[in-house]
Design goal:
Helix content: 40-55%
Distance between the termini: 43 Å
Largest sheet: 3 strands, parallel
Structural class: mainly alpha
Strand order of the largest sheet: 1-2-3
Number of helices: 7
Order of helices and strands: HEHEHEHHHH
Shape: elongated
Oligomer: single chain
Radius of gyration: 19 Å
Length: 158
């Protein structure tokens, strides 16, 4: 609601750039992010504006730049379950599997077992987006209490 006012204040205080995510707290993750708010901030300040909100692909990023004239695009939730989005091109299934397995290895190596179990379930659930019967798969993943079983359930659906 007050993005332009806040951006102008930030600029006057000497910030080098501003990131604008145009949803309000009450909107949570619902609906589409109103990119016109990003555009209004771009028009109001002379410093670079980074746009954020509803970017899940390189095409989305290009569309945001075209619609708002922002200097750059930040991807947040759009990378959950699809970290390859930053490549800007299609990622083959075998490469996605390699990335998921590496992510699993890092979770196991860096976190305590209970936290690793929680994080692995969460991330594999995101990776399952678009799978046939993904809702049922997510339910199975979250019911499971063993890392090995979580992996088995996920990879059998892969």
């Amino acid at each position: 609601m007050n993005a332009v006012e806040i951006a102008r204040i930030a600029e006057s205080e000497g910030v080098d750039a501003i990131t604008v995510h145009p949803r309000t707290r009450s909107q949570q993750f619902g609906g589409m992010a109103p990119w016109d708010i990003i555009a209004s901030v771009v028009d109001a300040v002379a410093i670079p504006v980074i746009g954020n909100g509803d970017v899940r692909s390189a095409a989305d990023a290009r569309a945001m730049v075209a619609a708002t004239r922002c200097a750059a695009v930040m991807i947040g939730r759009g990378a959950f379950g699809a970290p390859w989005v930053f490549r800007g091109s299609e990622t083959p299934r075998e490469e996605r599997a390699r990335i998921i397995r590496r992510h699993d290895e890092l979770i196991q190596a860096l976190l305590l077992p209970r936290t690793a179990l929680i994080q692995l379930k969460k991330h594999l659930a995101w990776y399952a987006h678009g799978f046939p019967h993904a809702a049922r798969l997510r339910e199975e993943l979250f019911r499971t209490q063993e890392l090995a079983e979580v992996r088995e359930i996920f990879w059998s659906a892969w």
